[in-house]
Amino acid sequence: MPNRYIPKAELEKLEAAYKGYCEYCKYLQKYTSARLQNDHIIPLALKGKNEFANLAKACISCNANKHTFTSFLDPVTNEIVPLFHPRQQDWNDHFQWSEDRLLIEGKTPTGRATVILLDMNTPEIVNLRAVMPKDEHPPRR
Q: Residue 51: how many CA atoms within 13 Å on its side-chain side?
């Protein structure tokens, strides 16, 4: 059974890095009573480690949908591709906001597969994005 204990130093690095948003869908923590979760980018079940390089802050929806997946089908190329890795990749390289800034669009195979698997544009989160103050959404880099 994998060790689920995350050392305090690694958690402190993670807290400092995430800036209050889900690192996948950019859901802002302060607008929910549900705390963002510690996601293992490479799941412990697949030999992922309890270290900052393998941890991301994720909303409940993204974390639950990601589950133990590390890759998924890109609908354009019809190929299985790696999911977005917040510690190794820049969000803006793989995603963009729709013109009205309500939807996350994948720009790359990785981005498209991640948007679909994590269901990053649920009606609830799109509605939240619509009422968020312009200085908080979309988040600045």
A: 4
